[in-house]
Amino acid sequence: MTQNSIKSQSPPDEREGKPSASGAERLVACLASWPNEQAHGFEGDVMAATAQGTEIAAMMEAEEIDEDAEADSQVIAEKLGELEQKALAEWTTHYSVDQSTIVGPIREARLWLKDGGEKHSSAKLDVFFFGLAAGSRKVGLFLDHKTGFKDVTASPKNWQLRVQAIALAQTYGLEEIWGGIAHVRFGAKLDYSLYSLETILQLRELWIRAVARTENAERFYAPGKWCGYCSFAHKCPAMHGYMSILKENAETGWKLDDRSMIRGIYNSKSGIEKSLALMLQWLKKLPKEEMNALGFDLEENAPNKPFKSALAPWAMIEPTGLMTEGEYWDLAKMSKGALIKELAARYAKQYNTTKKAGVAYFESLLEPVCLSFPKAPSLKDIEGK
Ligand code: SF4
Q1: Is residue 57 part of a domain?
Q2: CA 38-158-99 angle, 5° bins
Q3: Of 91, 160, 215, 323, which has the fewest Cβ atoms less than 10 A away?
Q4: 173 with 134, same domain?
Q5: Is the pTM of this model over 0.85?
């Protein structure tokens, strides 16, 4: 796939307590977020890598699909690989980049933005390349992988990409960069922006000023859609204020002239949801007696049973004659649940039985090609039992 591939290595304490690209949008939008996250720690940090993210990153690094990875991860890694190849081809053609000079892909590398020779902030890039364009200009390309379902700010206004572009340009002395998002949900697509050297220098100035403005700004709360990523959300007075307004209005009802409050709460809902999620985490960790005294208990859940590989189930399903291979791949790409639901419906029709019986039949048939991961218990309300 590539030329001069470099395997990146990052130190364990990657951010070294300094601002980073992943929190840049929040830092710029809400001056209070950065000083409070620093002062109160990152215990609620939602930016931690998920098991699926790690699995996908491993496949991207190896540049091959791991048949033992979860089917969803395999599909995502495949789509990311295709988008990466598309971006690389477009970038190479656009700049007439000399193939022999291309360095990359460099993956999962943390780059430092320096100010006055000191480390100021950092950016971790999912993947990047650079090389010599016509006229010996040094140009770069980077992509940020978006594999989740949450809304992402479009590339022209995306501060995470801006800080990534600044750090990449500064580290490798690049004169122009294409940077963008590789979206794999809701239709795989690329969303690029072009960063000229002039733009990068202006953005660098703005970013350094934004970080400086956060000093002594602990109380300058500006809630918004970024709150769901803020590790201070569960302690934030702005979130607490919104929650008490929600409680009051649940009792008295909303009015049309509450417009700005309604919009403010709606736009910060991810921060409120995060506060609730952290309360649930806290409840689940209580000793049993204390949990019971509050009227809750833990309830065991059935294990997660993903397919061992995307290919293995087809060997079991094909002999049933209930589905073509094309239909199987379309459904398997969606989810195991969607596949079993459709198979169960066809089974019920064919054998004049219930869909429930169909689900039981296929769960048992496919058991040998499934893994089994224990699932954390749920919190159960036992009050009034
Ligand atoms: S929760 Fe929202 S308003 Fe509060 S500090 Fe964090 S980003 Fe700012």
Answers
A1: yes
A2: 115
A3: 215
A4: yes
A5: no
251 and 330: one domain? no
Q: What is the pLDDT of residues 206-234, one digit of tens each?
A: 999 999 999 888 789 998 888 888 888 88
User: Which structural domain, as residue segments, surrounds residue 340?
Assistant: 312-369
Torsion over CA: 278, 282, 285, 291 (sign): negative
Q: What is the pLDDT of residues 286-299, one digit of tens each?
A: 899 999 998 999 98
- Cα of 236 from ligand 1 centre, angstroms: 6
Weakest mean pLDDT among 53-67, 153-167, 317-331, 368-382: 53-67
Would you state the torsion angle of the CA atoms of residues 375, 381, 382, 385, taken in this order, to the nearest 10 degrees?
-120
Backbone angles phi, psi at 278, to 5 degrees: -70, -30
239 touches ligand 1 (CB under 6 Å): yes
Q: Is 214 in the pocket of ligand 1 (CB under 6 A)?
A: no
Classify the C-alpha dihedral 328-331-333-337 as positive or negative: negative
Is the distance from the beta carbon of residue 33 to the nearest atom of ligand 1 less than 6 Å? yes
Indicate the number of domains in the chain: 3
Tokens at residue 9, please?
């290595």
Report d(CA 232, CA 228) in Å as an integer: 10
Query: Does 195 share its domain with 322?
Result: no
Q: 270 in ligand 1 pocket by Cβ < 6 Å?
A: no
What is the Cα–Cα distance from 203 to 205, expressed in whole angstroms?
A: 5
